[in-house]
Amino acid sequence: MTTTTAAAPPRPRKAMDSLTQRYLVLIGLIVIASVGFSIANDNFYSLANLGILLRSIAVLFLVSMGMTFIMLTGGIDLSVGSNVAFSGGVGVITLTTTGSAPLGFAAAILAGMAIGAVNGVFIGRLRLSAFMVSLATFALARGLALVIYDANSINVSNTTFLWLGGQSWGSIPVVIPFVALVFVALSLVLYRSTFGRDVYAAGSNINTAFVLGRRPERTLVWVYVLSGALAGLSAIITVGRVSSGQPWTGLYLEFDAITAVILGGTSLFGGRGRLLGTILGVLLYGIIINGLVLTGTNPYLQSLIKGLILLGVVLLDTLVQRRQAQ
Amino acid sequence: MPDLSRLMREKNIIFVTLALCLVFYMISPRFLSLDNMSAISRQIVPIGLIALGQFFVVLSGNIDLSMGMGSVLFAIVLGVFFGMTGGVALGIVAVIVCSLALGFFNGMLVAKLKLPAFIVTLSMLFCAQGLSGLIIPRGQQIFLMGGFFRFVGAEKFMGLYWSFLFLVALFALAWVVYNHTRWGAAVIAVGNSEENARLAGVNVDRVKIGVFMFSALCSGFAGIMLSTRMGFVQPGLDGNGLLLDGIAAIIIGGTLILGGRGTIGGAFWGLLFIGIINNALNLLNVEDVWHQVFKGAVILAALGANWILWQSRQVEAH
C-alpha cells in the first residue's frame, strides 16, 4: 500500500515561468517608482506629464527593441546613439536640399541601415566581436554626424518632417501609437516568422544553427540592419521633438538601451528574452531617468546612478540564475 | 622573394607607418622636424599607457572599457590631493591605490562571477564619469603647478622627454614579462582557451584579476601623465577618445581581438601609427570634425586587415 502511494509522482505544481515572474516584479517596481516620484514631484502624475514622459522615452523604446533582437543573437550594438545622430543628419540635409519630407525620411532610414550593415557584415560575416566593431562605428558615425552638421545644429521647419516626433492628438503624442505599432510589427516578426526563430537559434547555439542550415551569419547581418533602421526612425522622431537636427543627439543612448533590455530580462548571452520585457524595462528605466531629471539631480550623479543600475541588474540576474541552476 | 613578401605581410604595420611618414613629409616638411617628432613622442604617452594595459586585457580575451574615463577620474584624484596638500607624493600613492582597487573590483566581477567584461567595464565607465564630476563640480578646474608637473611634462633627458622614456621603459618591461615569464604565458593560455589553461594548471581567476589590475594601474599612470601635460584637471576631459586611441593602437598592431595572440612590438608600432595620424591631422589643419571619422575608419580598416591576414595564414597552414 505504502509503496504505491510513494511511487505515485507528486502532482507537478505548475511553476511560473521565470520570465513571467520577472515581468510581474517589473510591473510592481514601475508602480512603486511612479508613486515615489509623484510624491516627490506634484506634476509627475498629470496626464500632460505622462505624455511628455512617453514622448521622451519613445526613442528609447525603438532603439531598445532593436537592441533586443541583437542581444537575443548574443551580440551588442554600441553604435546606436551615434547612428541616431548620423542618420538624423543625413535626413535633415536631404530634407533641406530637396525640400521633400518623404525623401528625408527615406534618407534617414537608409543611412541608419547603412551603418547597421557595416556592423552586420563585420560581426556576422567576418565573425569579429560585436563590441569591438560597434565601438569603431560608435566613433565613425558620431564623426560623420559632426562632419555633416559641421558641428552645428540645423533648424527644421518642414511640418511633414516634424509630424511624427512633434505632433500631438490632444495630450497624446502621435509617436505613442506609432511605437505601439512598431512593437506589434516586431513581435510578429520575432514570434511568427522564420526569421524570428533564426534570431533565437543564432543566440542559443550558433554552431547548431549553422549545421541545421539556418545561415546564422545572414541572420546576424539582418538584426544589425534592423537595429540601424530603428535608429533611423528614432532620428526622425528626435528631430521632430526638438525641431532641429543636432550632431550630439543620442549620446550614450546605447547605454540606456542596453540597461533597459537587460532590465527587461533578456539574457546577455543570447537566446533568452522577449520584447514585452524590453517594453517594461524601458518604462521602468525611463520613469527613473525622467524622475531624476525632474527632481533636478546633478547630471554627474545621474551617470553614476546609471552605471550602478546596470551593474546592479547584471549582478542580481547572475546571482539569481546561479541559485536557480543549483 | 618569399621572405620579403612574408616580411611585408607579417610586419606590414612597420611599412605602412614609414610610408605614412613619407607622405606626410611630402605634404608638409615640418612633419619630420625634430621639434615635431619630440612633440609626437610626448603626445603618445597617455595613449601608450592605455594601449599597454588594454593589450594584456585583450590578450586574455577580455576588454576594459573603463580605462579612458578611469584615467580622467585618476587625474582628478591626483589634482584633489595636490590641491589639499600642495605635494604630489600622497596624490600618486592615492592614484595607485584607487586604480588597483578599481582593477581588483573589475577583475573579481569578471573572474569570480563570470560577468562579461564589456558590461562590467561599461558600467564602470559611467561610474568613473559620474564620480569625476561629483569630486570637482562641472566647469571647475584644478590647476597643477610645480616642479613635478614641469619635470614630467616638459623636462628632457638626452633630447627625449622623461615621460616618453618612462613609456618606453614600461613597454620594455612588458616585453620581458610577456615573453619570458610564466605570467605572460599564462595570459596567452587564458586568451586561447580558458578550459585548456585551467587543465594545464593555470589559476585562471588570478590571471584575469591580474590583467584588470594592471590595466587599471596603467590608466592611473595615464591619468597622471594627462594631468602633467594639460597643467589642469577637469571632469570634461575626453576619456573616451583616449580609450578609442588605445584600442586602435593595439588592433593596428595586430593583436587578435578574440585573445591569445599579439606582440608588444606590434602594439608599439600601432601606437606610433596612431600618434602620427593624430599629429598629422593637427599639423595639416584637418578640421576637428573629421578626427573621429578617421579614428573610427582606421579601427574598422585595421579589424578588416587583421581578418584578411588571419584568413591568409589559415590558408597557408593547410
UniProtKB/TrEMBL annotation, chain A:
Alphabetized GO MF terms: transmembrane transporter activity
Main localisation: membrane
Full protein name: Ribose transport system permease protein
Entry GO terms, CC: plasma membrane
InterPro entries per UniProt: ABC_transp_permease
UniProt subcellular location: Cell membrane
Keywords of the record: Cell membrane, Membrane, Transmembrane, Transmembrane helix
Transmembrane portions of the chain: 23-40, 52-73, 80-97, 103-123, 130-149, 169-191, 220-239, 251-269, 276-294, 300-320
Topology relative to the membrane: Multi-pass membrane protein
Any Pfam family the entry gives: BPD_transp_2
Automatic annotation (TrEMBL), chain B:
Subcellular location: Cell membrane
Name recorded for this polypeptide: Ribose transport system permease protein
Membrane-protein topology: Multi-pass membrane protein
Spans through the membrane: 12-32, 44-65, 72-105, 117-136, 157-178, 209-228, 240-258, 264-281, 293-310
Main localization, broad class: membrane
One Pfam assignment: BPD_transp_2
InterPro entries (alphabetical): ABC_transp_permease
UniProtKB keywords: Cell inner membrane, Cell membrane, Membrane, Transmembrane, Transmembrane helix, Transport
One function term, GO molecular function aspect: transmembrane transporter activity
Record CDD domains: TM_PBP1_transp_AraH_like
GO cellular component assignments: plasma membrane
Origin: domain of life: Bacteria
